[in-house]
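Here is my example:
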Amino acid sequence: MGSRQRPVVSQENLAAWCTARFELPLNSIIFESGYSSAVVGIVLGDNRRVVVKVRPWHERLISCWRVHRQMWEAGFPCPEPLGPPERHDSLAISFENYLPGGEHLSRGIDAAKELGRVLAELVKLAPLTDTFPHLYPQWGFLRWDDPGDTWPSATDIAEDLNMRHDPAWIEHAARLARSIIRGSRLPTVIGHGDWWTDNIRWDKGHLLSVDDWDSIVCLSEPAIAGVAAALFAFGQATVIESAAFLDAYITASGRRWKTLEHQLAWAAGLWARLFDARKATMLGDYEFAIQLEGEVEERLDRAGMKKRLSGHSLT
């Protein structure tokens, strides 16, 4: 399954892009994958293996590429990007060296600790935010600063998330979480906004590669860590897993967090989970909402909001 934004890419287009970029023909295709982007592994005419990424054009992709390039040059484990995205009509086309292999961690406390530690290392190594103005607006569901109290548009379904209000506690909890996030005035850092275990590959216990650099964001550190802590385990981390992730992140970051930073992290993570729950209900799937309903009070409590579910609302 892919996002509705994922482009359909023909072999003719791939061949034309390879000729334009490398002055080499397309030899063969190794694999095709991707969710919001079309990701195609190819072999060029000189037997070099590269990965082509095709997605809708956004100006922020240039800044994402610059961050990716600087992180690769600094020695952070990731594929080497081969030049900035090129615009072809409404599409962004980019290439990176093929870095195969590795495994994804399963969920659990050990995975939470490892993934929290690595995210902290990424944030510490990332460049400063001052030279990356085009990382705004934020990517996807992280646009909690959009005007008003409505949901931002989902990138993978056409439905308007604001057209459904059942169960009502999702909207109520989202307003509470959003109020905490919007009230923050913490400085921003650069980090990864889609920290799913599927985007991090390991080889015999060592980090092999972090992928999906289109998801680079510029947010406060607790917001980046909090969203990752809530979503890393296939979008459904438990409270215990989220807490272990944040503890590992904070330890690896080398500094202590204040109470408000802890609360912001839990609020941002809850917002991300509520967004996914509302999106799923738009498609008639209530599994995410049912799983989250049993945790929403504790997550709100950790975010500094002592609220209790009463019927279909929070009081």
User: Anything to note?
Assistant: Residues 16 and 25 are 8 Å apart (CA to CA). The chain has two domains: 11-97, 109-314. The chain has nine helices and eleven strands. The two ends are 38 Å apart (CA to CA).
